[in-house]
Amino acid sequence: MSIIKKVQARQILDSRGNPTIEVDLRLDCGSEGRGIAPSGASTGKLEALELRDGDKNKFLGKSVYVAIDNVNNEIKNKIINNQYGEQEILDNFLIDLDGTENKGRLGANAILAVSLAFSHAMASSRNLELYEIFSNSVDYSLPVPLMNILNGGAHADNSLDFQEFMILPLGFDSFKDSLRAGVEIFHNLKEILSKFSYTTAVGDEGGFAPNIKSNEEALDIIIDAINASGYNPGKEVFLGLDVASSEFYNNNQYLLTNGKTYDSKSFCRYLEIMCKNYPILSIEDGMAEDDWQGWTLLTETLGSKVQLVGDDVFVTNPSILKKGIENKIANSILIKFNQIGTISETIETINIAKENNYNFIISHRSGETEDTTISDLSVGMSSGQIKTGSLSRSDRTAKYNRLLRIEEKLGSSLFNSNYVFDKWLK
Ligand code: PGA
Ligand code: ZN
Predict the structure, then answer these.
(1) Range(s) of the domain holding residue 53
(2) Most CB within 10 Å of its CB: which of 110, 234, 240, 403?
(3) Is the per-residue pLDDT at 1 higher than 90?
């Protein structure tokens, strides 16, 4: 059982047309698994290192041939014909083999692709669905989709400061109805944007990327789209933001494209007013990764009213999350497995969040592929929420489609959209 017999890495393309690493792995029982590393654009400074070749003559410096060589030679030579009874044993071996804090020697993309390929192969060898492999508990649930229907920031060529404007359809009895609401709002949004002569071209995560001038106008238009779809904003459908504020934080100031600058206190006030004026239920990276004082203030001010999600500030890192919890920073964490580099460490971080009553949201990256592991991870770990972009482009809809198939198998009773938001919906 679980003796690794084949490991093979290759270069494929992600949704932005950039190279990424894919690994195929086979066990002695014949079971095979495939892992693919996604890739971020607005990355946190303390993320595990994505190893790229930097040779300007190949893929503008973005090829990953060194990471691939690391898998096909050093990693393969060490793990082939060895037995790893559990994911954690293999992952710990890879972490030690790399020997650096940020997985920079072998590459977090190389290590993650092997780690993921192993979990797929293990699920197959045990005749399990992938979501069954991640936890000993069978306490599965289907997640609420946090759908990013308007894109700005580093994911679009427009002047919107905030990176993501999301809708959270909570007032539904099943994942598929929740998704349907999202799709209807998405298509109505397209019509409204056209009516105002805005472009309906999409950004990296499949959401529209119109040249809307202000964050408020973006929210107004989304509210219009929710109403046009026959849903009730603030009752059935709520709003979420990924401010991704590290992208416009410099010298202790938050600088918006309209020229206005804010310090932590006034930016916190700005977000607070926005929450008063709109049915916002979730704010991600409202403060910058280096602004822990700002985070403390934001959490004191808004933590009892909305979900405050740490992405760049926690980078799915167990030690940083622990420090954040001690410092009362945020009340939720975004989970991206390539920020930390192995499945086991991802699960360790999730378990810390669970033990401390922090919500956790399983998330894609802006650079994605056809891989749908995050859908299974969200069901298996019972995250209650998933963030996987908009309702267009197969790299995004593949994750929703996988969840539809899981729902068909497990039943819609596992969709209980409100429980993760209970404390803020009172
Ligand atoms: P990224 O964006 O994948 O480009 O980091 C996603 C996010 O910030 O949540
Ligand atoms: Zn984010």
Answers:
(1) 4-127
(2) 110
(3) no
Angle between helices 318-326 and 343-355 in degrees, nearest 10:
20
User: Per residue in 33-56, is it b (16+ CB within 10 Å) or e — as a string?
Assistant: bbbbbbbbbbbbebbbbbbbbeee
Residue nearest to atom 8 of ligand 1 (CA): 42
Q: Does 236 qualify as catalytic in the annotation? A: no
Tell the residue nearest (CA) to atom 1 of ligand 1.
40
> How far, CA to CA in Å, does 394 sit from each of 21, 199, 361, 370?
19, 21, 21, 7
Q: Is 40 in the pocket of ligand 1 (CB under 6 A)?
A: yes
Catalytic (active site) residue 50: no
- pTM of this prediction exceeds 0.90: yes
Q: Is 15 in the pocket of ligand 1 (CB under 6 A)?
A: no
pLDDT given at position 80: 98
Count: domains in the chain? 2
CATH of the domain at 85: 3.30.390.10
- Identify which ligand lies nearest to the alpha carbon of 284: 2
Single residue among 102, 127, 152 that ends a domain in this structure: 127
